[in-house]
Amino acid sequence: MAEKQAIDHQWIRTILFLIFFSAFLSACSNTYKLTIKSDPPGAKVTDVRQGYLGTTDFEYTAKDSLSTGGKNRESLNLTFSKPGFLEEKRDILNIKNSQTILVTLHSAPTYLYIETIPTGAEIKLHNKNGEQLNFSNTSKITRKSFFANRRYEIPDSAETLWVELEHKGYKPLSKEIKIVPHKENRFAFQLDEVVATLQINSMPNGAEIYERTLGFLGRTPLKLDFKWDKLVRLSQHYDALETSSVNLQLTVKKNNFKEKSFIQEFFLYKRNPATLVELEAL
């Protein structure tokens, strides 16, 4: 019986010791009030270890803690984020007093990235009034012209833009795009290859068709697609983008018929009507 009473007294002393030790720790632990603000307010604040802490402006209580090696002070690694603004980070190490943390948020730029297939198309931008827009080239390569597949910074006020794309060997493309400010706006466009079709019929059929620059083209009825490599040879500017049509210097030959030569306007970007050549017998 005496032994049981001794054990009970030992448990009581242990419990009392734990209660007093806990109170001692609490007495030795300090708390600090942090007022966390941002300009403008409304930023979401997260800590790398604790996660979401609150939305500015708010108050946070930091506490000291005891360890075997001595007193540990709390530290925070904060990230401030708000739509339309750049992320800001702030580290508050070894907090030992109450304080106010104020972070200034900077407006996020508006970026434009236009991808073209194939790459490397030249870009021109116009606002809703048709005025050409000047924008900032964020790449380290400085060039007079602007090209696709690069990121550009444009005015935050841009809402609706007309983008014009030109690429050698492909049809020009014009599209209206909607811009979301303070974000990277990404668009992708497939460009159509320039292919112009020549159609020539003759009476009678089976006549040979020649072009002064390209040579023998085929026999009638002829339907022939001209791609970029041939169009650029026919263009006097050596750049099919700088002209809407070229002149074909054609010759039609057939045995027992008079040879016939003529110049025909050949359109690069619109449909060419079929040409009928009537040959005169010898």
Automatic annotation (TrEMBL):
Organism's domain of life? Answer: Bacteria
Q: What is this protein identified as?
A: PEGA domain-containing protein
